[in-house]
Write a structure and sequence with these properties.
68% helix; 0% strand; single chain; 373 residues; mainly alpha
Length: 373
């Protein structure tokens, strides 16, 4: 191609990647691999023209634009590039896309679809750049941040789109680091804890995706000797080691995941998820979560009830955890007290902690539902 024709084709693809339509952006991203194979790489897969050295940098710039369509398209484009074209700017690519998973500071620039697109792209990018181990660990940290995205707009819990995309990528990146012997115990435990929280969530699709990946990651950790005690304890606590549970069904999922509260390293995030679900709306899912949690505690020994009671108070003191929805955990704790599921753990000191946490949440509050809780 003449230089002008080449630049024209690339400009057309770049323009399509900024298009408001998902279909147009997807078509543009699909066009990138064959275009790059033909025009930017030679028979030995070496970059043959200067544009090949900078193409990844071009799409990094798109990920950082104010235009939300460009941000979504930029993440798609980077994931479509071959390793040879990503390599010259690999560190910068992973850093930029990792930061694109985070909730934007400016409310006017927030776009859940952009954050979800970035989270989805990260697993592919890390697989294409296997030598960047330190940056891959940083990507895991970025994805853990994305899994605490509980942003809401007039469409509802749009943060769930980000959480679902992030948990899928998290398991893939963690598995890649495990296979390379580069996932430390501390980071593995954070991954397992974050997946455990989502495995007790209210949205069926997200809960099922998280639980399946929690089981897969626990199996991989146990096989590789990473966070072995926690991984084995988790698998032992789940019916059929987690492989026989219909995670999309709340009536099966909550009784299956609740016994994992016995695993100390996973208890704080898992209890956050269970309390949020158990204290939610008076529907079948909330009832299933409340019943499963109460039954698991009634059948537990006194030491576990004490530990769970203490952690429940800590959840209230943290304002309900990452979701910052304190009303649901308050209702859940009240239900556990009424069901006598915390007997032996709810002493005077504990009661004072809970009362102080509730008082803090109520101070200056104008949310009637929260005040009623």
């Amino acid at each position: 191609l003449k230089k002008s024709a080449f630049e024209g084709h690339l400009a057309t693809i770049s323009e399509a990647l900024r298009h408001p339509s998902d279909t147009v952006r997807a078509a543009a991203a699909a066009a990138l691999p064959p275009f790059c194979e033909k025009r930017l790489l030679d028979g030995d897969r070496c970059i043959k023209v200067p544009a090949g050295q900078s193409i990844a940098n071009t799409f990094v710039g798109m990920v950082r634009e104010e235009n939300v369509a460009a941000r979504r398209g930029g993440a798609l484009a980077l994931a479509a590039l071959s390793p040879e074209l990503l390599a010259p700017h690999g560190e910068r690519v992973l850093e930029a896309v990792g930061l694109a998973c985070h909730l934007e500071e400016d409310p006017d620039e927030r776009d859940a679809e952009s954050r979800a697109a970035a989270a989805r792209s990260l697993a592919t990018l890390v697989a294409s750049l296997p030598s960047l181990v330190e940056r891959a660990r940083a990507v895991v940290a970025d994805l853990l941040v994305a899994m605490e995205d509980y942003s809401i707009d007039n469409r509802g819990d749009v943060g769930s789109w980000v959480r679902e995309a992030a948990l899928v990528s998290l398991e893939r990146v963690a598995a890649q680091l495990l296979a390379a012997g580069e996932l430390p115990d501390e980071l593995a435990l954070r991954c397992l804890g974050s997946l455990a929280r989502q495995s007790a969530g209210r949205i069926d699709k997200v809960r099922a995706a998280a639980a399946e990946r929690l089981v897969a990651l626990a199996e991989a950790c146990a096989a590789r000797g990473v966070a072995t005690v926690t991984a084995e304890a988790l698998l032992a606590a789940l019916p059929g080691r987690g492989r026989s549970v219909t995670w999309t069904a709340s009536a099966a999922a909550f009784p299956a995941i609740s016994p994992a509260l016995a695993v100390a390293d996973l208890r704080p995030p898992l209890l956050e998820g269970l309390l949020a679900s158990a204290g939610g709306a008076a529907d079948s899912l909330g009832t299933a979560a409340r019943t499963a949690l109460a039954e698991a505690l009634k059948g537990a020994d006194g030491a576990l009830r004490v530990a769970v009671a203490a952690e429940a108070a800590a959840v209230l003191e943290r304002g309900g955890g990452p979701s910052k929805a304190a009303a649901a955990p308050m209702r859940a704790v009240e239900g556990l007290i009424s069901a006598r599921a915390l007997d032996g753990g709810a002493d005077a000191v504990w009661s004072a902690r809970v009362a102080a946490a509730v008082k803090t949440e109520c101070a200056g509050c104008r949310d009637v539902q929260k005040l009623m809780a």
